[in-house]
Amino acid sequence: MARIVGGLTTSHIPAIGNAVPKEKDLVNDPYWKDFFAAYPPARAWVQKVKPDVAIVIYNDHGLNFFLDKMPTFAVGAAFQYQHADEGWGIPTIPPFQGDPEFSWHIIESLVRDEFDIASCQEMYVDHGFTVPMSLFWPNYSYAGIKTIPVQINTVQHPLPSPARCFKLGQAIGRAIESYPKDLKVVVLGTGGLSHQLDGERAGMINKKFDMMCMEKIVNDPESLARLSIRDLVREAGAQGAEFILWLAMRGALSGKISVVHQAYHIAISNTATGVMVLENAA
Ligand code: DHB
Ligand code: FE
Predict the structure, then answer these.
(1) Fewest beta carbons less than 10 Å away: which of 38, 125, 245, 266?
(2) Rounded Cα–Cα distance for residues 57 and 34 (Å)
(3) Ligand 1 site, residue 274, Cβ cutoff 6 A
């Protein structure tokens, strides 16, 4: 049976995607060094555990879904996923391999569980997906791992509630654990932590709230699932609502959780960055 080996979280700021190919030169750069210092321990865990499949829970920011058609929940079922132009040219990173058979198992299981998601046999993946994959699999070394995109709307209100996203994660966990193939599965939750990109509060950060979220997501995610979207926007900013993606990731981890690594850093673009490696023991 497929087994959930753990959860990974990271912020997904587009500027990171541009910095990743220059990481070797930036590890001593005053602006980037503390940011990149957070990743080697997470990469070491990924290399040790060697997951076969990554379920990537992220939000699309207008590349594949725009305001005209915005599914609340969408799951990819393609053989391959590609990045595309988000406004700074056609990206040259290698494509991501899919696993349509596993995708359809998850889609069927979710719909049976009353999550009526959109299934996508063609899907572009944006920085919400590509930046985390490029950070945890350095030098674009993700060719050997299959990926399944799970997209949650954090852009066009109404957004699904934290409680609903936590339950979706639990349903994804049940779907994974009922898949008959012997696969090691890691679940990524991307985005956050506190940030607001526009309006009067542009640039706001709430370190106290972020710290509370990083603490509670380990042993008391239910208390975070009781927050409303309004609470998240007020405390963490309009884009800080991306924390629902972390909650969906956490919902999928059904076993005993231990924190292998965590880091928090303020100063990249407009966003407080958070990294966590949560190991999931059966
Ligand atoms: C930034 C953060 C995001 O989550 C995003 O999707 C785009 C930009 C930023 O801080 O620049
Ligand atoms: Fe974002």
Answers:
(1) 266
(2) 25
(3) no
Nearest residue (CA) to ligand 1, atom 8: 13
Name the region of 23 (left: φ>0; alpha: ψ -120 to 50; beta: rest).
alpha
Per-residue pLDDT, 117: 97
User: Which bin fits 125, alpha (ψ -120 to 50), beta or left (φ > 0)?
Assistant: beta
Please tell me if the CB atom of residue 270 comes closer than 6 angstroms to any atom of ligand 1: yes
What ligand 1 atom has the least distance to the C-alpha of 192?
4
* Model pLDDT for residues 112-145, shown as the tens digit of each residue: 999 999 999 999 999 999 999 999 999 999 999 9
Q: Amino acid letter at 75? A: V
Provide the domain limits for residue 63. 3-281
Tally of domains within the chain: 1
> What digits encode the pLDDT tens for the residues 20-40?
999 999 999 999 999 999 999
Global pTM reads: 0.98
CATH number at residue 258: 3.40.830.10
The residues annotated with a catalytic role in the active site are 127, 195
Q: 176 CB contacts (<8 Å, ≥6 apart)? A: 2, 4, 55, 106, 185, 187, 252
| Nearest-atom index, ligand 1, CA of 61 | 6
For the Cβ of 271 lying below 6 angstroms from any atom of ligand 1, the answer is: yes
